[in-house]
Structures are given as structure tokens and as C-alpha cells.
Specification:
Layout: H1 3-20, H2 34-57, H3 59-65, H4 78-99, H5 101-119, H6 127-144, H7 150-154, H8 159-172, H9 181-204, H10 208-231, H11 235-247, H12 249-259, H13 263-282
Length: 286
């Protein structure tokens, strides 16, 4: 289920909640947290189910390239894994529908997008990274959907995580056998576009200073291992760049929250980073 990655998906939803302005229009009543909790639980099911099916569809390939994974190592059967994946995805969709019909439909779209990537998308050089990015973009919209009307004004923001995740997916293609410098340079350019977009929104919202507090460590976390991989594009270095890119999503989401004036929520999101890093040492991230 990639526990460390699941924490980053929770950060996606919380960033979406911040973008929607939900807490700017709510009192501090405990009941107002219920939709937020439901959406966080929903994304746990959706992300967990998606990566479980990734391993289900890759079981035969993993017997050769990653024999240590749960299915090829014999820790769990393919049928058991598929059952777990179905339960997780179904739970994610149901929990989202408890918030609203729009949230439920977005959860269903995330499920379809994830399964298409797991089965088909990953095998396409160009469409694969976009397909994977779409899952994250929809996940951000899942958080924004806590106020359905907010989707009308902010749906275009989903393009940013699509670009970011597409770049990480491009990099990950060289994780086993090494990659090309051209691909890594392209990823660096896409990273720069993402950073520029976040800073632009924060400037327009008048929250540039607060946003820089999160953007600067985000930039350091993603570019440091990427530059190492560019110098020596071997599988080990590329794997580190991919892992850093995935976990740095938490800082990116905190930056989004800060850009939209939800500083307290940005701090809550950042607190998830140590947890994700700890889980990243215990469980596979890529």
C-alpha cells in the first residue's frame, strides 16, 4: 500500500481543502472536521488500492526485476492482493460519496484513472506520466470539492500536480536500468514550472513571504537528488530522486495552503513530513 506515499495523498486533500477556503467559512465546531476526515480516509483507500493493483498487474515482471516485493516473494497471493485492492478502492469511493455526490464522482474518476495507469498507462512513454499525474490532480480536486462551488474557480490548479507527478514518473522509468540525462533535464524544467506557478499564485494572493517558507525547502528537497542523478544517471541515484520527489509532495501541498492564506493548515501538512519520511524508511516508496 506504500504507507509513506499514502501520507502524501492525505496532504493533497488537505491542500485542496485549504484552496477551497473551507476553514475560512467555518466556525471551530468539531462537526466541521467530519467532511475533512472522510475525504482523508477516502484518499487513503484510493491511493492504497491503486498501488496494490499496481503490484497485482506487475506481479510477473516483479518476479524478475523486484523479487523482494510482497507478491513475488510469496508473502501474499495475487488473489489476496486483488481482494485488498478492491476493498480499498470501494471504501474510498463510498467515503467520498458520504461527503457529496461530486466528491464521490471524483473518487470514482481517481479509481478509473489509477486502474488504467496500472494496467495500460504505465507502458506508454508519453501518456503514462500524464495518466499518473491525473490521479494526483484529481486527488487535489477531491479536497477542493469539500466546497463544490470552489471547483469552478480552482479546477485548473489540478494541472500543476499533473505536471509535477508526470515529471517524477518520467524519471522513474530509469530506476531499474538507469536513465538518460535528457529526461532528467526535462524533469528539472517541469519542476521549475511547478515552483513558478506556486510562487505566482502566492504573489497574486499576497502571501508570497509565507509561501517561501515552504517553497524553499521543497525546492531543495527535489533538486538536490535530481542534480546528483543528472551527474550520474544510474538506477540508485534515480531511485533517490524519485523517492525525494514523492515525499516532497507534502512540502508542495503545504506551499499551496500557505499561498491561499491557510497558514495553520500549511503547518499541519508539514507535520506529516516526518511521519512520511519515517514510513519511507520502513516501507517501499517506489
Amino acid at each position: 500500500m506504500r504507507p509513506a506515499n499514502i501520507v502524501t495523498s492525505i496532504a493533497d486533500v488537505l491542500a485542496g481543502v485549504a484552496i477551497s477556503g473551507y476553514f475560512l467559512h467555518q466556525t471551530n465546531q468539531l462537526q466541521n472536521l467530519v467532511p475533512v476526515v472522510l475525504l482523508c480516509l477516502s484518499t487513503i483507500g484510493l491511493y492504497g488500492g491503486g498501488v496494490v493493483f499496481n503490484d497485482v498487474f506487475d506481479a510477473e515482471l516483479d518476479r524478475v526485476e523486484r523479487p523482494e516485493r510482497p507478491i513475488p516473494s510469496g508473502l501474499i497471493t495475487k488473489k489476496e492482493a486483488a481482494t485488498l485492492g478492491i476493498v480499498l478502492l470501494a471504501a474510498g469511493i463510498i467515503l467520498a460519496f458520504l461527503v457529496s455526490v461530486i466528491a464521490g464522482l471524483l473518487a470514482f474518476c481517481i479509481t478509473v484513472s489509477a486502474l488504467v495507469y496500472d494496467k495500460l498507462g504505465k507502458h506508454h512513454r508519453l501518456l503514462g506520466p500524464v495518466n499518473m499525474g491525473l490521479c494526483r490532480g484529481l486527488n487535489l480536486l477531491l479536497g477542493i470539492s469539500i466546497i463544490p462551488l470552489a471547483l469552478q474557480g480552482h479546477w485548473l490548479l489540478a494541472i500543476i500536480p499533473i505536471i509535477y507527478i508526470a515529471s517524477i514518473t518520467m524519471i522513474s522509468r530509469g530506476e531499474v536500468h538507469g536513465g538518460s540525462k535528457a529526461t532528467l533535464y526535462t524533469a528539472a524544467l517541469l519542476y521549475a514550472i511547478v515552483l513558478t506557478a506556486i510562487l505566482n499564485y502566492s504573489f497574486l494572493k499576497g502571501n508570497l513571504l509565507f509561501t517561501l517558507v515552504f517553497v524553499l525547502p521543497f525546492a531543495w528537497m527535489i533538486f538536490k537528488p535530481l542534480l546528483t542523478a543528472i551527474k550520474e544517471p544510474v538506477g540508485r541515484n534515480i531511485g533517490k530522486a524519485v523517492k525525494a520527489g514523492v515525499l516532497a509532495l507534502i512540502l508542495m501541498n503545504a506551499a499551496w495552503a500557505a499561498a491561499f492564506g491557510a497558514l495553520y493548515l500549511a503547518i499541519v501538512i508539514v507535520i506529516l513530513l516526518p511521519l512520511s519520511l519515517k514510513l519511507g524508511r520502513l516501507f517501499a516508496v517506489t
